[in-house]
From TrEMBL:
Keyword Mitochondrion: no
An individual GO BP term: inflammatory response
Gene giving rise to this polypeptide: LOC109113314
A GO CC annotation given for this chain: plasma membrane
All residue ranges annotated as the G-protein coupled receptors family 1 profile domain in the record: 57-340
MF (Gene Ontology): prostaglandin E receptor activity; thromboxane receptor activity
PROSITE patterns xref list: G_PROTEIN_RECEP_F1_1, G_PROTEIN_RECEP_F1_2
Compartment(s): Cell membrane
Transmembrane spans: 46-66, 78-103, 128-149, 170-190, 221-243, 282-301
Protein name, per record: Thromboxane A2 receptor
Swiss-Prot/TrEMBL keywords: Cell membrane, Disulfide bond, G-protein coupled receptor, Glycoprotein, Membrane, Phosphoprotein, Receptor, Transducer, Transmembrane, Transmembrane helix
Main location: membrane
Length: 379
């Protein structure tokens, strides 16, 4: 998806000195110019590189998750792995499909005009492009939030987790998330709202930088609000889970000696390697999502808020900010798989051995839920 943004800006917009959140671009810099405006040729080499890197990264991470799912199919990690696999599949599909659509526009312009020009794509093509952007933008955010909630239940209510979080319910959750994103993305295809070409004409999305209707504003607001809510839920859930794991660790230090005397053996820590591995991955996924998506979502929210405040004149946000925000959001699909590639249990254990060779922080004999049961039995 990063190859949506390889075209350079026109000279007029590049020389703007006041391109900030309150600056508007003149009307003569819009995509809807009557004559094609020349821009610098797109960096096709960089586009091919980012597409290949993103595809290979997601495929590698999916292979790792498939191997883990075969090992932990009947254990508590299976729901988490299913959600993670769905997230990576959506990242892979979004990266390849939106990237191919954008690359087709680039190649078509160079072929027919002999240079990179700012031209509107056909309306049908733009609607398809915009729906893919919305769908594959929402799915990873919703799936990441579902993963955080699942782990929060598994850590804070370990005895209730197997009864509440079943594989059937996880599959239904994935279908519900897909259906929700599909509805919001498909409404403009039913003439409820519309998708517009965005500067510099290499991608399509809900209109946010021009005069928009109430329907378009509502769809843009729904997209940004839903995205920000999912990020908030992920942050809160992961914070609660992390605090619960720390609390369990401190509690173990108090009961470890007496439990060892009574039972002869007791885990050195209730922080099972699986718990730590999943929480580390979740924390990294949340940080990546917040850093990549927050600027784009906040930008849309601010634009729609100005519309509802009655600022409906020719004023508009500078397109450069929106383009930079979307470029940052596109890297989420490339960085997500590296979380599962690098933050695996074996890698984490090796890293901790290098940092603290005299301490064993990961144990294979117990999990947080097992130690919790033992503590209950002690009483």
């Amino acid at each position: 998806m990063d190859n949506l943004f390889t075209s350079s800006f026109p000279v007029k917009c590049q020389n703007s000195r006041d391109c900030n959140l309150t600056t508007v671009c003149p009307d003569n810099q819009t995509v809807n110019s009557t004559s094609p405006a020349l821009v610098n040729p797109p960096a096709f080499g960089m586009s091919y590189f980012t597409m290949t890197l993103g595809a290979l990264s997601n495929l590698t991470a999916l292979a790792i998750l498939a191997h883990s799912y075969a090992r932990f199919r009947r254990r508590a990690k299976a729901p988490f792995l299913l959600l993670a696999s769905a997230l990576l599949l959506s990242d892979l599909a979004g990266h390849v499909i939106t990237g191919a659509l954008a690359l087709h526009l680039h190649l078509g312009r160079v072929k027919y005009y002999g240079a990179a020009v700012i031209m509107e794509p056909p309306q049908v093509y733009c609607k398809l492009f915009g729906s893919c952007m919305v769908f594959f933008g929402l799915c990873p955010l919703l799936l990441g939030s579902a993963m955080a909630v699942e782990r929060c239940i598994g850590i804070t209510w370990p005895l209730l987790h197997p009864a509440v979080v079943t594989m059937t319910r996880i599959r239904l959750t994935v279908l519900l998330i897909t259906f929700t994103a599909l509805i919001l993305a498909g409404l403009p295809l039913l003439n409820v709202g519309n998708y517009k070409p965005q500067f510099p004409g290499t991608w399509c999305f809900l209109p946010v930088n021009s005069l928009i209707s109430i329907t378009d504003a509502s769809l843009s607001l729904a997209f940004s609000t839903l995205g920000l809510v999912t990020l908030t839920v992920s942050v809160v859930s992961n914070t609660v889970s992390g605090l619960k794991l720390l609390q369990a660790r401190f509690k173990d230090r108090c009961v470890k000696s007496s439990a060892a005397r009574r039972h002869g053996s007791f885990s050195s820590s209730s922080l099972h390697s699986l718990d730590v591995e999943m929480m580390t991955q979740l924390a990294a996924i949340t940080v990546v999502s917040c850093v990549c998506w927050s600027p784009f979502l906040i930008y849309i929210l601010m634009s729609v808020s100005r519309f509802y405040e009655g600022i409906r004149g020719p004023r508009r946000q500078c397109e450069k900010l929106l383009l930079l925000a979307l470029r940052l959001a596109s890297w989420n699909q490339i960085l997500d798989p590296w979380v599962y590639i690098l933050l695996r249990r074996a890698v984490l254990r090796r890293l901790l051995q290098l940092l603290q060779p005299d301490r064993v922080l990961f144990t294979q004999s117990s999990s947080y839920r097992d130690s919790h049961r033992k503590q209950i039995n002690l009483h």
